[in-house]
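ok so heres the complex, three chains, lmk if somethin looks off
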Amino acid sequence: MPVPALKAKDYKSGIKPVWCPGCGHFAVLAALTKAMAHLELSKESVAVVSGIGCSSRLPAYIDSYGFHGIHGRALAAASGLKAARPDLTVVVAGGDGDGFSIGGNHFLHACRRNMDMTYIVMDNEVYGMTKGQASPTTRPTWTKSKMTPHGTGIPRFNPAAIALAAGAGFIARGYSGEPTEMTRLLVEAIEYPGFAFVQVLSGCVTYRPDQKGWKEVVHPFINDVPTDDRIKAAQIIQADEGKATGIIYASSFPVWQPENQQATELSLLEEEFCI
Amino acid sequence: MSDNPEVVIETVAEFLVHALELEEASSDHYDELADSMEIHNNLKVAELFRKLGDYSRQHAKEVHARTEGIELPQLTPWDFKWKCPSSPESFCMEEASYMMTVTQAMEIALFNEIRGRDFYQQVADNTPNDKVRKIALEMVEEEGWHVEMLREWQTSLQEEPPLDDLDPPNMPE
Amino acid sequence: MNNDNKPSQTTTSYSVAITGSGGSGAVTAGRIVLEAAAHCGFQGLMTRSAGPQIRGGESAAMVRFSADPVVCMGDYYDLLVALDWLNIERFADEIPLSDKSLIICDPAAGEVPAQLRSNRAEIREVPFKVFASGLPGGRINMVALGAMAMVCGLPLEALEASVKGVLRSKGEEVVESALRALSLGYNHDRRPVSPPLQAVEKRKVWSITGNQACGVGALRGGVRFVAAYPITPASEMLEWLAPRLEKLGGSLLQAEDELASINMIIGASFGGVPSLTATSGPGLSLMVEGLGLALVSETPVTVVNVMRGGPSTGIPTKSEQADLDIALYGLHGDAPHLVFAPLSIHDCVFTTQWAVQLAEHLQTVSLVLSDQSLGQSQAIIEAPAEMNMPWRRVVEEVPDADYRRYQITADSISPVTLPGTSNGMYTADGLEHNELGTPSSMAADHREQLNKRLHKLEAFDYGDDWAQIDGQGVECIVTWGSCAGVVREAADKLWQQGREIRMVAIRLLAPLQREKFSQAIAGADRVLVVEQNHGGQLFHYLHAQGVLPEQAESLAQPGPLPLRSGRIIRALTA
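and the predicted structre for the whole thing:
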């Protein structure tokens, strides 16, 4: 008897999320499990790796192998895991603070290293877990945080532009208010051979209630996307105010992956020391 | 998706797949809201969402019963002919809040149920298939009854003062 | 383990230093002498020293060889070969001479500096430049090498064999010219100065650095993934490992920084592949948060820290044992883990293998404290015997429905499922958790997991390898890591004087084997703790652990100069 196909729900672990009711991250969880079901991934062949923050709680809510590491280092842990275990489907999840601030360096190098994994950043432009401080993607004039009472006063981090400059081959943007479209993006991202970066605009109902207004401004890209032309992609990213969704850039670059083929025995290697 | 001008569903199998997905997504969605309201100590609203989840589950069961003997097509999540970015009864997630009152929760529920009813109505209006229209209209009636029930429920509710959050939020990590 | 009464006897050794301006071939000459000694059956050690320049500047090679294992440099050099006098004062502290020493130099290079003459060493002049310029492609370092071989009694054939080996890659002409220069230097003045060392039977020996030896230990322990960021003086371990890991079916990933490298090996180890990184003080400082994650998520990793002068950037090219404190206490929270220190270059193989396999078996963090003096020195050692250690990660291959990743067991080691195993899914977490791995801030869960992580380390039987103990005397020298070599030398000399010396060199620093340590020093009426740092880190650690007698003394000397046996003997004679 054939094993009945798993449904999205079957990929949920049953642990109830700590997220606030209304949090955009619920939609990401739903979209990711739908994507897993669509791709018919076996649960044990998937590893979800994260850092610290509200969104980084995701691995525990998915019935697969998970690694909930330390703040900012999810991509590093995932890169080591993928290097050692190329057979696994590796999904990395985190927030804007985790990925673009404390983990910014790893973001750059993961883009250029181009290992086969999917990186989902749930971007709500705020640090939720530490009570609402400004993040790298917060607009400079946002004054609601006590830590930056006059706003950060510095320009926002543009994730898609930086991913492109750092050499990522797959760049997409989704929105928690469009879970179906997000599912499609995630399916494409997981299937993409290489480092696939998906920025999800995922509103924070508690610290950024203004983000409810996103549904008025989020729209699909009006340009021809995806493009495989870096120059065009750069133009599209720079021309847009950061609220357009879809796959922006999909190109093909060599994937970095060690071969892990044994060719000799250690005792033979040790002979080099003999005199 | 939103760029489809009209929803045209041609076969009973296709229609049932949509109905099943709508009701299952709806019950999952309400369950999730109920869970998170429980976690955030808004038990009254949790109870409401739990009930709505049960209704949708009941509905899904009924739709499931209609699928007996019919081979259902496999649709990818983005092949469903919704006119909105998610399935019709699962929208408005961001309107939820841990401090919402039962009245406010009821508004979300009503909005969802009306959209569910409208979806079935559109199918009935646009389908070339009589059998599909017949089932769709039955569903419209059922959803309509749901909407009425919710409205009655709503009017019986006393307007509550908005909930207060006397303590600052937690910093778990 | 050598616990018998009668300590080994010192036989004579020979120490030579070769100095010159950078590029003059002092280091190549040193390597050739070392290998020639190996061809004669000797064991040996070569350290090198250089100015801060990448190329040029000045450099020195120091070589000591003996029929016995050579575990440190001597107090004085028998021979200084000066290819020229450029910045020789830089090395004056590092190359102590006595009135029994000999200096070989070229009169064409100018006067012997007054500073060296003051040692009243004998001076023998050899016209390096004249001989070299008389040969096509002639090099002064090869002429000097010949003269040196004659003085220290190494046969010309051994030098020739070594020249052929070391210079082979440079082509036949270079080798031919070198051999002729060698012969000119050798035959110039045939008065041997030192009595030749007792000839020994040729044994199976290795020529290896401590960094390479740690690499061998890592591979023997099963390491198949390394992620690392380059840093002095650890990089050579990584450079040695990279191509060899590939041949063994593993890989090395050069990370963007040390924060990445520690987390990468944690990720790889979570995938089931034994993993390691190597670094030095500044890198270890960056990794510390990751060590806590590995420890709490019970993901085995090994970090080899090749210590250098600290704190901060410190003295990157020189040795110091000043990272014991950070290794023991650097982590936040109650974070018991394993800390090891290899006692010699030879021991780097054993200790690193042991560290890796215990990290795997105990699902914890192993820190291996090597240092620059071990890592970057070249040694001729007896080939390290293969050690068959039974310890492996306890893997659950067929988990049942009730599988709990952090299950409390009798030995507190919970069998782990590896990704890919059906029904074994769990989320490893740096958050405190319950037996299932679910995050928990409950007092009972925290206490249970704290106990588990401590108990698995405390309950394990580490056997006799926790230290090397020699002699049963009433004067006890306690040391750790690389200082074991010079302590051994001091002990040997004191034994020869008839002193009742005992030495305890600690290899496993954490968890400290308190009872075994107390037994090891029992009956001593004097205890001296010897280490190469400023603060007496081991001394204070042992006191904090309550295992040192109140009157114990500390001899703590910071780098960059190596500790000499005479300093230890003086401390015990005072």
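quick notes: Chain A has nine helices and eight strands. thats all i got rn
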